[in-house]
Amino acid sequence: MNVILLGAPGAGKGTQAEALAQRRGLVQLSTGEMLRAAIRAGTEIGKKTESVMKSGGLVSDEIVIGIISDRIDEPDCKNGFILDGFPRTLKQAAALTKLLAAKGRNLDAVIELRVDDAALIGRIEKRAADALAAGQPVRADDNAETLKLRLLAYYRETSPLIGYYFAHDQLKTVNGMAAIDDVAQQIDDVLDGKA
Ligand code: AMP
Q1: Catalytic status, residue 36
Q2: Which CATH number goes with the domain that contains 42?
Q3: Which atom of ligand 1 is closest in space to residue 30's alpha carbon?
Q4: Which residues contact 132 (CB under 8 A, 6 or more apart)?
Q5: Is 127 assigned a catalytic role?
């Protein structure tokens, strides 16, 4: 089963993708996490993407499409994967459709986690505070100033994907304002054909 989780920064994609991956034996593919790992490892991709990520902008389509195309071919993705943070532009969505067809893979569901805009800022601030309290590093882009730019990038570049997948009869929307377990149940209902 191959699934896309769509939603604004702070909508809960990472939390739900991780839990869903565990429930269904799938692999969570977070392009943001892969890019942060590349920055930590000091790879060429990391060097190219660090400043744009820090400023809240989007990394080039070519880079992320290449990363995802390679990653999907790895053996652990055979049972299925959850895309978390990809695609983020119409160009990426079109490239994904094409590359899945070329690899003979299906897209089983596109699930939008819908969250009120006003809640997003509070959620990101909480994520940063929780990381700090746990003695973990705070993401370079988890601050109020950069979040505004990330939200702008979401509305300008990513939110059109909701229309794109709706028009392809693939979109399902769940209420991302519900408690974490409730959202997980809504996602299961979609995947089990009950919603
Ligand atoms: P995330 O962890 O999904 O919030 O992503 C963090 C940052 O990584 C984003 O603000 C972008 O700079 C970059 N990024 C992650 N995924 C993509 C993508 N699919 N396209 C472009 N940039 C991305």
Answers
A1: no
A2: 3.40.50.300
A3: 3
A4: 138
A5: yes
Q: pLDDT by residue (tens digit) across 57-113?
A: 999 999 999 999 999 999 999 999 999 999 999 999 999 999 999 999 999 999 999
Residues 6 or more apart in contact with residue 89 via CB below 8 angstroms:
58, 61, 157, 158, 161
- Confidence check: pLDDT of 123 > 90: no
Domain extent for 173: 2-191
The reply to whether 40 belongs to the active site is: no
How are beta strands 171-175 and 109-114 bridged, if at all?
Answer: parallel
Give the separation between CA 7 and CA 24, rounded to whole angstroms. Answer: 21
| Pairing verdict, β 81-84 and 171-175 | unpaired
Count: domains in the chain:
1
How far, in Å, is the centroid of ligand 1 from the Cα of 58?
6
Q: Is 11 in the pocket of ligand 1 (CB under 6 A)?
A: no
Q: What is the pTM of this model?
A: 0.95
Q: What's the token pair of residue 105? A: 């893979």
Task: Please give the number of the atom of ligand 1 that sits closest to the Cα of 52.
Answer: 12
User: Which of 50, 88, 113 is the pocket-test mutation for ligand 1 (most atoms within 8 Å of CB)?
Assistant: 88
pLDDT of residue 118: 85
φ, ψ of residue 83 in degrees (nearest 5): -85, 120
